[in-house]
Amino acid sequence: MNKTNFEFYHSLKSNGYVQEKRVPITIRNSDTFNGLIQSEIIGKIQSGRGFRYVIQHEELFESFFQTHFPESIVIENKSDNVRKYRNSKVEKTISSHIFLLRGYNSIFRAHKNRK
Does the residue 57 lie in any domain? Predict the structure, then answer.
C-alpha cells in the first residue's frame, strides 16, 4: 500500500462514497480493491450517468483500514514510513547526513549545534 491508496481509502472512509471517475486506475486494477468489491465490503451503485463506490459493511471496512493503514503513526523517519505505508520512500523525511572519513592521522571536528 502506498500514499495514493491511503488517500483514496481515507476519503472513502470519511465521505462514505467515492465517484467512479475519482478512483485512480492503479487502485481500480488492484487485487485489494477488487477483493473488497467481490466480498461486498464496497458496493457499486448508480448515481446519475455514472457510478459511486459505497461502503456497505462499515465494520469490515474499518478492520481492513486499520490493518493496512495504522493511523496513529506519525512519520518522523524511514522506519515510520515502513510501518505506516509498508514502503520507506513514500514520504520525505528529515535525516542527518553521515560522512565517513578515512585518514591516517587523528581528525578533529568542531562540534556545532545545527538545526
Answer: yes
Q: Is residue 92 part of a domain?
A: no
What residue type is assigned to position 20 of the chain?
E
Give this prediction's pTM.
0.64
Q: Is residue 28 part of a domain?
A: yes
Cα separations in angstroms, 25 against 30, 68, 90: 8, 20, 19
Instruction: Please name the residue that has the C-alpha cell 455514472.
Output: 50
Residue 33: give the domain boundaries: 3-85
**pLDDT above 90 coverage of the chain, percent:** 36
From CA 112, how far away is CA 97, in angstroms rounded?
14
85 conformational bin, left if phi > 0, alpha if psi -120 to 50, beta if neither = alpha
